[in-house]
Amino acid sequence: MKMELIIVAILVIFTAQFLYISSTTDAEYGGADGEAEGVIAELTGGTYEPIAEPLWEPPSGEIESLLFSLQAAFGALVIGYFFGYNKGKNQLG
Prior knowledge:
Elements (H helix, E strand, L loop, with lengths): L1 H23 L7 H13 L16 H32 L1
């Protein structure tokens, strides 16, 4: 019961911080790829050309988001299985 209260308190604190910051600032949440592209262009004066191209590019941003969320879900599934397996193994032995 104590652990659940701690988790709920942490979630409430982070949610309150997120809501406060997002309502009081004009911040835009962009990805790291766009930021890196800007920094590389600034450092090289726009002369940088990538040495490799992607093998396949998703046809739209929605498909790209879908693939990213499937990747995250699969990772969470693997991590959850690992923790569950270890907990079950510890309870038996």
